[in-house]
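Encode chain A's predicted structure.
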Amino acid sequence: MEKPRLTILLGTARKNRQSQKVAHYLLDFFKKFKELDTNLVDIKDYATNYTIAAWEEDEAANPWREVAAKADAFIFVVPEYNRSFPGELKIVLDSELAAYSNKPVILAGVSIGGFGGLAALNSLLPALHKMGFRVLPGQLHFPEVEELFKNSEEELALIYESKLMKIKDDIFKSLNL
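Encoded structure for chain A:
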């Protein structure tokens, strides 16, 4: 039997993005659990410079549609830009709908400020619910990300280990593991 696939989506294509540190940190954490097939995908590999509706046939949307169809659960790493989330994330998510139906998603907010992307996650939630995702209750927040990742692995573990274990348990439960 195939292991459930947890897809971590790096939700920004911005140059010099700090969210990449968070995405790799989460990938390293979840790779430890052999019950999951964990992978990282980068929004920049799927973003187009135009919106493709989910019901439209467009070759440019097919790679993302395949990723979405293969994923059993998601973690979206979402930076906060001007109190919202990146436009390329919305463009990519809008290109599919059917594959999202009741799939669990965890949100990980990232910011250079002190609230860890809270405004971005709050602005994204209505769209995710409308698209059919099952947003799990635990959110992760990575505030002051540039300073945060100057910490050692041990210091990061002290901050995030218990939160990540709870998130892992929620994901496992949602996948009946």
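Residues 72 and 79 are 23 Å apart (CA to CA).
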